[in-house]
Write a structure and sequence with these properties.
- The structure is a single chain.
- With 341 residues, this protein is α/β, with parallel strands linked by helices.
- The protein has eleven helices and 13 strands.
- It has helices spanning 3-14, 20-31, 68-74, 96-104, 132-152, 168-177, 231-238, 263-268, 277-287, 304-312, 323-338; strands at 38-42, 45-48, 55-58, 61-65, 80-85, 110-111, 124-125, 153-162, 181-189, 217-224, 255-257, 294-297, 315-320.
- The strands form three sheets. It has a nine-stranded mixed beta sheet with strand order 3-4-13-12-5-8-10-9-11, sandwiched between helices. A two-stranded antiparallel sheet has the order 1-2. It has a two-stranded antiparallel ribbon with strand order 6-7.
- Helix 10 (304-312) links the parallel strand 12 and strand 13.
- Residues 112-119 have low confidence and may be disordered.
């Protein structure tokens, strides 16, 4: 909550107003106490960190149920070596009201694709419906995320964030404004059902027209925490600053050919944004150049990042706010880990 929202809640609770400076001073003091339950997320923004947070551990993977910003704010500075995450990059698609519609099959911002060739497609969020206010919230959200990432990452740490062609520029710009260093994009070549549709209601009148090109790629924004040393010295001190090569003859590339997520994996984890293990294992492996350190996924969903890290022998930490997805991930991580490429 913002300080203004907290002031309003306090006024409602006590039926009187208090000096704003007193409330702000109290919040700052409480946030410095590790057992107070109050966490400073960013300038003027605070959260309550539940002390009885649910926690799941499997091998070297740890999953925490809680708010991403609150949990990240509780982590030690410079304690994470890489972030690989598939966040709610449109934000509106994972509001409680929209998730409720999705689970009831009612759509909302989620488009329920028709069956095609006997196959049932997964729901897809419609980012063409975003308003200017929605876009401003995306920038504010990822600005806050960037501030927390900058604090918890070691110098030279990689950040890989799944996005969408319609919002990737907003995500990248917000992360750069927070102080992170842009390092290009990772392109996942994948055929989806996004785009390519004829004008709704005028399909027969304009049979040769598509409203948008059919999407055939998925951009992942790549950022890095700035480092003061050369890459070699940073690798020696922090184990970060580059990408792990595929082998002696092949560096990790920024284009990955990827099929949609297999039915076998969707049967394990029925999450609308589930990414295939084959893709996630390539990204997670490359993100730690020396194969050492901690991978963080602040928006863990079904736990696919943690499963990929576990299959590689990496340590990982995931955060998931939604209780249903948290429980889904607890069940899915061991099963996804056991899958063969």
């Amino acid at each position: 909550m913002t300080v203004t929202e907290i002031e309003c809640r306090i006024a409602d609770s006590f039926n009187e107003t208090f000096e704003s400076s007193s409330i702000r001073s109290s919040l700052r003091l409480q946030a410095k106490k590790p057992d107070s339950g109050i966490v400073r997320v960013s300038r003027g923004l605070y959260a309550m960190s539940r002390q009885s947070t649910s926690r799941f551990e499997y091998g070297k993977a740890t999953l925490i149920q809680g708010d991403a910003f609150a949990v990240m704010a509780s982590l030690e500075e410079s304690s994470i070596q890489a972030i690989v995450t598939d966040p709610p990059y449109g934000l509106v698609e994972y509001k409680k009201s929209q998730v409720s519609k999705l689970r009831k099959g009612q759509g909302g911002v989620w488009r329920i694709p028709p069956s095609f060739d006997g196959a049932k497609r997964s729901p897809l969020p419609r980012f063409t419906t975003l308003t200017n206010a929605d876009r401003e919230k995306i920038v504010e959200f990822f600005g806050r995320f960037g501030e927390q990432a900058l604090r918890v990452l070691v110098p030279g740490a990689n950040i890989v964030v799944a996005t969408n062609p319609l919002v990737s520029h907003l995500v990248a710009g917000a992360l750069e404004s927070a102080g992170l260093e842009p390092r290009g994009q990772l392109v996942r070549l994948v055929q989806t059902m996004r785009g390519g549709d004829r004008p709704k209601g005028f399909e027969s009148e304009y049979p040769d027209v598509s409203v948008m090109p059919r999407s055939q790629f998925e951009p992942w924004v790549i950022m890095r925490k700035p480092m003061d040393e050369t890459t070699g010295r940073n690798l020696a001190e922090y184990g970060t600053g580059g990408w792990r090569r595929i082998d002696d003859d092949h560096p990790f590339g920024d284009v990955i050919k990827s099929a949609p997520t297999r039915k076998e994996e969707r049967a394990i984890a029925n999450h609308p944004s589930l990414k295939p293990q084959k893709l996630m294992r390539q990204i997670v492996r490359a993100a730690l150049p020396l194969g050492m350190g901690m991978i963080l996924d602040p928006f863990a969903g079904s736990g696919s990042t943690l499963a990929a890290a576990e299959s590689l022998g990496y340590s990982s930490l995931g955060i998931e706010r939604d209780s249903e997805y948290y429980n889904l991930a607890c069940n899915a991580i061991p099963k996804l880990t056991a899958l063969k490429d």
